Amino acid sequence: LKPPTQGAVAALHMVHCFHLAGFPKGLISCVTGKGSEIGDFLTMHPSINCISFTGGDTGIAISKKAGMIPLQMELGGKDACIILEDADLDLAAANIVKGGFSYSGQRCTAVKVALVMESVADTLVEKVKAKVAKLTVGAPEDDCDITPVVTESSANFIEGLVMDAKQKAATFCQEYKREGNLIWPLLLDNVRPDMRIAWEEPFGPVLPVIRINSVEEGIHHCNASNFGLQGCVFTRDINKAILISDAMETGT
After folding, report:
1. For labelling alongside 59, which of 37, 51, 81, 141 has CA 20 to 30 A away?
2. Does the domain formed by 80-247 have CATH 3.40.309.10?
3. Where in the chain are the domains?
């Protein structure tokens, strides 16, 4: 196991637990270090016979170097949530908040963009806003819903996406607030495709809403993304659900 630099402590604790549970010595090892320094050594070593990698564009570089070794890749996501007119909006709102803001949005499989049919968008946004208002913000020790993101550079990146959306007149459903690495949850309505937040993965508690006028428009936006990790669709019509999910070019 080669953990990310920012997540090394948790990974070392986990491997220690394996050893305490009685795993034979040498069966599981944890190797820490910068991917830029030890990544190639690990992925190209002749003793390695399978690679599972979680992360972003680095996965493409690994796939080019790994040769014939089996790969299991879980790369970045701009996971789209498509909400149709016939959706259960309370259910959709609950899952958008859970999917978009748990772990402060720091999940590859988080909901990263809500594509909502115009006719139900006002209602859905109000329901999501009400749920976001109930999220607690603070320290992880206090068991808060929203806690600081992993690094200052991550917080700066998220802020860059927010400021771009502000400059291009997105609707802020809450006031943007930040203290150090702690960013308060933010829902952005009326996001357009010319905004960075429509395409880039914030990996933080900021969720864009794009209003669509047809299912085709939603599928097109989902598939135009460079990412293809995960997607979801809310409708009461099982046939539409299957057709749309089949049309979405996502892993799950």
Report:
1. 81
2. yes
3. 8-74, 80-247
Dihedral sign of CA atoms 163, 144, 210, 172 in order: negative
Please check whether residue 170 is in contact with residue 208, taking contact to mean a CB–CB distance below 8 angstroms: yes
Per-residue pLDDT of 69-83, as tens digits, reads 999 998 889 999 999
Indicate which residues carry an active-site annotation: 74
Using left for φ > 0, alpha for ψ between -120 and 50, and beta otherwise, residue 180 falls in left
Are the C-beta atoms of 20 and 1 separated by less than 8 Å? no
The model's pLDDT over 75-128, given as tens digits with 9 standing for 90+, comes to 889 999 999 999 999 999 999 999 999 999 999 899 999 999 999 999 999 999
**Of 106, 149, 115, the residue nearest 223 (C-alpha):** 115
Partnered with residue 121 across adjacent β-strands are none
